[in-house]
Design goal:
Layout: H1 23-33, E1 41-48, H2 49-65, E2 69-76, H3 78-90, E3 97-101, H4 105-110, H5 118-123, E4 141-142, E5 145-146, E6 149-155, E7 157-161, H6 162-167, H7 177-189, E8 194-197, H8 207-215, H9 232-246, H10 258-263, E9 267-272, H11 275-284, E10 292-295, E11 305-314, H12 321-331, H13 334-344, E12 347-348, H14 361-369, E13 373-374, H15 382-397, H16 403-419
Parallel strand pairs: 1-2, 1-3, 8-9, 11-13
Antiparallel strand pairs: 3-11, 4-5, 6-11, 6-12, 7-9, 7-10
Helix pairs in contact: 1-12, 2-13, 8-9, 15-16
Amino acid sequence: MKKLTKLLLPGVIACTLIACGDKSKNSEAASTASAAGSQEVTLNVWAMGEEAKSLDTLVAGFEQQNPTIHVKVQSIPWGMVHQKLLTALSGDSTPDISMMGTSFMAEFVKLNAFEDLTPYLAKDSTVKLSDFIPSTLLTNQFDGKTYGFPWYADTRIMFYRKDLMEQAGFKDFPKTWDGMFKLAEAEKKNGVKAPITLIKNDVNTPTEMLVTLWQNQTNIVDDKGKSMVATPAFKQAVTYYTSYFKNGLAPMDLGGDIAPLFVNGKLGMFIGGPWMISLVNKAGGKEFADKWGVAVMPAEKTNTSFLGGANFVMFKNSKNKADAYKLMEYLASAPAQKQFYDLTSNLPTVQNAWTSIESNPTVAVFKQQLNNVNIPYNIPQGPRLYKVFGDTVEQIIYGKVTIDAGIADLDKQVTQIMQK
């Protein structure tokens, strides 16, 4: 996947977006960070989703260690956060720190919204980039500069029913595309209603479709922005993905929530993130614990999976940069990361935070998968590329277009998007 990631990441991998930083301001910020004031300050922090609730609990320890600093956490719905961030940026009313979805990073770096943390890191003996799992830095570094700390990681692995797999004649979960397809066929013959469930489209990023491309070492565009849609590897990946629907192995409508259907044996396997562990355990109880397992993604040429999650960034407009950076240091500490995992089941990004949790064999598979991940395009055209890609695959799944016709039209759309 080395060639495919060149377009994604400036600095660490190569970049098409350049952050326009002010060197004098960065130097000033670095010196400011070395001496926090003693007067009482309030840090405004934005966070999204369930993580915002847990952050309130998490920062209590920071406030105890720093009695002159009060942290005010504002919860922002994910659906509103992008526009709210843009509005705040234009109105010079950004928070000191914000949780930032990984897919937003490139856009706001280009808008020069974030404080460059590189000078802080140069003087910081508490946080080192080497503390983090390397893949989690991919969305934080642009043009050789660091603009955020990874807060939690998100990747996808396979969840499967051990008993249904064994009844289908498989001792271990398959490691290849062909093996997983054959497992799905065998489970179907055994009467499993839905051997696997896959998305038909997604309003944001069609993750499961993307990883299928990556596993065949292809993508929508190459590192120069040229469409890869008309290549044999792209067609092979789309054909493989849609064949699960064509052959009745993935239902058009699952007919319910994943965890209960998985527990009652109507669903044989699915692609899921770390949050699914607690949902499966809750739905199945202790007596179900031995009936399911997890595995890294199957491979065609590679078993690459998706890397998501969230970062923490400091905005350039913060008037409390020294204290804001101190909070970022705290959130990047192994104890805070472990506490956040206990609160949310979100995967830590700091390597030392895994010491006590990777003894859990299920969680350990997520750590293993993090060694082979890729990220969605960190370019402005990314959302439009995913929209037309997802729409095309959905049309193929429903039989509205043939694979050849769909790919030909998608190739034209991708080329037009990249030319704008």
